[in-house]
Design brief:
239 residues; mainly alpha; two-stranded antiparallel sheet; 11 helices; 2 strands; 2% strand
Amino acid sequence: MRRLRGIFPVILGVWVAGCATTGGDPGANDPYEQTNRQVFAFDEKVDKSVLLPTAAFYSMVVPAPVRDSVHNFLDNLNKPVVFANDILQGETKRGAQTVGRFVINSTAGIGGLLDVASKAGIPNHSEDFGQTLAVWGVPEGPYMVLPFLGPDPPRDSAGQVVDFAFDPTTYLRYKQHIWWSAGREVISVIDLRARNAAIVQGIERGSVDYYASVRSLYRQHRQSEINNGKEDTKNLPNF
C-alpha cells in the first residue's frame, strides 16, 4: 500500500501534465486548475461517502484513550523516517529528539502505545523527504491534486517514494506482511480524518471557494513544516 502511495502520484503526475487543460491562475502556480478541480470534486465525493462516515464510526465505537494509543503507535512507527530526514536536513538536535522519543516510547511507552516522551519533555515533530527537498532548494513544482491523495505537488510525490525506502518496515518479510502494511495505511488515514473532522468542516463552511482555500492552506501548512514552525516571509508561496 505504501509503495502505491509513493509511486502512483508520480505516474499520475505524468498523465496530468500531458492531458490537463492549461490556463489556470498563474499566480497560484496552478496551471492544471481545471483538471485539479475535477479531481478535487471526486476526492470530496469519496471523502463524504466513504472516508468521513468511516472516521465518524471509528470515533463513535472506539474509546478516546484507545484512539490515542493507536495514533501514538502509528506515529512511533514513523520515527525512523523522521530521523533520516532530520539528519539529511542537518537538524542534529531534532534528530536526537526523534531518537529519544522512539527509544522511550518503544520501551516505557509499551511499543509506542503511550506517549511517555512528551511527558518527559521531549517535543514531537514530523519530517518527510518532501520537506528535505525543499530545504535543499528544490522547488515545489505545479500544484496538483491526485485521486484519493489530495494535494500532492511533484516535490511531495517524489518525497513519498524516498520515505518508503527510508522506512525499515518496508524490508520486513513476515506472514501476511502486505495486508498488515495495507492495514497500517488505512488506519492511518482513518485516524487522520477522525482527528481533523471538525477542522475540515469549518474550513468548508467558511470558504467561498473551498478548492482555493484548501490550496492556500495546504501550501501554508507545508511551508510551516519546512520552516519547522518558524515564519519565513522570504519563502512564503504566492497564492
